[in-house]
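Note to self: keep these together.
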Amino acid sequence: MLKSINQAWLKYRLKDPEFCYLFDAPSDQDVVCFDCETTGLNPSQDKIVSLSAIKIRGTEILSSQSLNLKFKQQQGINPESIVIHGLRNMDVEQGLDEQVAIRQFVEFIGSRPLVGYYLEFDMAMVNAVIKPWLGINLPNQRIEVSELYHKKFYKDWLQPEHEVFDLSFKTILSKLNLPSLGQHDAFNDALMTAMIYVKLKRLMDRSNAS
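Structure:
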């Protein structure tokens, strides 16, 4: 009930009726995994440098149905962030203007659920662009893979015989026997996160069936 009221309020505040479809039921069963590389870790000040999104259908990663965007920068990219993601201003000179890029992202995801690792940060970064434009934050359902991992492997973590849980990206990949493709590249991070989601979904489906 509360969720319905919140959705109705967001829809009322939507500035552009063209995007009312964000509140519709998804047209398919796909979810979208996405990741951003940014100029820093402060959503109120920093900017998105690159963004990648990949559709997932059931337990199939649709890597051919992906979105890879580079954002043109109006200011110099923080050298400290360049060390992390390797993207310089010259690397995004042919990128899209922020508004054009984020519109492509919104059109790509539609009303589908969004999957990510440390998703709260990535959502804050995209919403920093979307809210001034549309008047609302994205209403899409969110699926945090670290929460799924915790539910699967640490149901009884308070019991003393269990190890202290570690929700780092590297540990989750290792625990699930998934390859590391190299972090801090938006597409690689989105793809590895999609792999984590699919592996966890398979394990959970198997547990539920037994």
